[in-house]
Amino acid sequence: MPARALRKSGRSMRVRNITSMHRLNIPALVLGLVVIIAYESLTEAGLLARQLPSVANLWTAGVTAVGGSIFWAAVIHTVVAWIIGIAIASGVGIPVGLLLGSSRFAFKSSRVLVEFLRPIPPVAILPLAIITLGIGMKMELWLVAFAAIWPIVLQAMYGVHDVDRIANDTMRVYGVDGRKRYRYLVLPSALPYIATGIRVASALGLVVAISTELIAGGGGMGFLIDRAEYAGHYALMYVIIGTAGVIGIVSTMTLKSIERRLLRWHQSYR
Amino acid sequence: MASVVSLKEHIVQKARGFLIAGWFPIAVGVVWWLWSESSKSPFFPPLRSILDTFGRTWGSRLFLLEVVPSIERLLGGLAIAIMIGVMSGVVIGSVGIVNRAVLPFVDFLRALPQTALIPLGIVLVGIGTKMQIGMISFGALWPVLLGTIDGVAGVDSLVKDVAAMYHIRKWQRFQSITIRSASPQIIAGIRVAVALGLIMMVVSEMVASTNGLGYFILNAQQTFNIKQMWAGILLLGILGYVLNMIIVKWEKHVLKWHLLSHKNEVLNESI
Question: Which residues of B touch A245 (CB under 8 A)?
Fold first, then answer.
């Protein structure tokens, strides 16, 4: 009887989880509507500063922007620099991290250096990048790569380092050779760490890409935000900032769902 | 006698650990020094002269003029972010319907690349320290808020029920159960917030400021004062490292109980 009760409650809990995920979030919708209506009536009444355009204005600006090529050129510029930068960081960072993590000596010797380089705000080296690489796409994607590589290296290092000792020893005792041990034990247990590293790196990379464009110019969404601010096109400025937010949340959610799908077998995703 | 031997062993072990951990960074420094010694590139001056400039620049009044304001803004912004984040996070996290209503918006604002908001700060507040503190605190707020909400909402309901059953007073329940069990997530949020706040500080100073470390570095580059630029980058690196170290030490101290029971969780969500 207790066993059945437990099973039953377990099942109903699962069902609830699934339905709550697909159910419409009514409280959030209500809150959003209330905020929009309150904001709109404040702007209608002229109680807010000129710099805060009405929702209707924002909508018009959004529609105009999405219909024009300037907006899309800026979005594409930022996204391309960001994705290539992350790709470079992963391509270099994952092998380096795996290598550094696989020997105790390498792990201990490189940890201090990586832990020292990681907290440096990546935009600190922006002026150096401007003078050595010039303003433009090349500089931007190298800066993104520089910023994104540390979390990836560090996570890969820790991932390999934290492989279950007992499992490793057991495989060794059973005569499993090094390559197979790597393929079936070390890599799979390092994967969740690497996935986290890439997710963190991509959020940081977007911040760096937009900051670079904001400070140095040379195209992209950050540059367009800056221009719109200068020209007093505040509605356009808000539209681009909002777009950056949408890109941020969509990328985070996408990476999380890929992670969940690829790492379904792992304990922490089950 | 035995204690003397173990002390000696302890020292030897410490020294060995230090050597293993330290040889690589030292080697990198030495290689940089030797490689740059004969460097003719205007962008990569000899390390010797960078360190020389570093000493002369930050040993002077420039430290008070450029670095102190930066640190003040950063700490001010972080203090505001942590205060607002923890207080509203506790409220949001403990009321289910509020949590549900607010969470999508918090998620969105957390995922927004925060530096994109700096022009907005310039438009609404204008250029100056007020805007910078505002932007730093706004950027740093979301990780703290999200961490607190997660932590508070995830408090074991069994523990809550037991505490209520034993008639433990509300304030004490809040202090020693809610805050305590949420503290790992709150502190993880604060760690992320410090890194974000530092980025916000640098970018806001590069975009709109007449002093500060970010302004100093960019200005040095624009006036081709390359050694001063390097000195600034170096100091910013040290600042980032020291802040991170303080947080990690504090975390270890406060969360000793937690770390002992979760030895295997090293997945750190950093940025």
Answer: 108-109, 111-113, 116
CB A270 within 8 A of CB A88: no
* Assessment of whether the complete model's pTM goes beyond 0.80: yes
Give me the residue from B25, B112, B266 closest to A245, CB to CB: B112
Of B118, B233, B270, the CB nearest to A200: B270
Nearest to A125 by CA among B110, B218, B163, B211: B218
List the single residue in B22, B201, B230 with the smallest CB-CB distance to A112. B22
Inter-chain residue contact A122 with B199, CB threshold 8 Å: yes
- pLDDT by residue (tens digit) across A252-262? 999 988 888 88
Tell if the CB–CB gap between A248 and B112 is shorter than 8 Å: yes
Q: Are A161 and A114 in contact (CB under 8 A)?
A: no
Report whether A115 contacts B247 (CB < 8 A). no
pLDDT at B264: 43
Cβ A190 vs Cβ A101: under 8 Å: yes
Question: In chain A, whose CA is at the least distance from the CA of B244?
Answer: A119
**Predicted confidence pLDDT, tens digits, chain B (271 residues):** 456 667 888 888 888 888 887 888 888 889 988 888 888 888 888 888 888 889 888 888 888 888 999 999 999 999 999 999 999 999 998 888 888 889 889 989 988 999 999 998 888 888 888 899 999 999 999 999 999 998 888 887 788 788 888 888 878 888 788 888 888 889 989 988 998 999 999 999 998 888 889 999 999 998 888 899 999 999 998 898 899 889 888 888 888 777 666 544 444 443 3
Which residue among A112, A120, A162 places its CB closest to the CB of B240?
A: A120
CB contact under 8 A, A245 and B195: no
Q: How many other CB atoms sit within 10 Å of the CB of residue A42?
A: 13
Report pLDDT digits (tens) over A42-61: 888 877 777 788 888 888 88
Using 50 as the pLDDT threshold, list the residues of chain A that sit under it.
1-20
From the list A237, A222, A210, A217, the residue with the least C-alpha distance to A65 is A237
Place of tokens 């985070």: A252
Contact B220, B232 (CB under 8 A): yes
Contact flag A126-B195 (C-beta cutoff 8 Å)? no
ipTM: 0.84
Instruction: Tell me the residues of chain B between 131 and 190 that have a Cβ less than 8 Å away from chain A.
Output: none
Contact B25 A162 (CB under 8 A): no
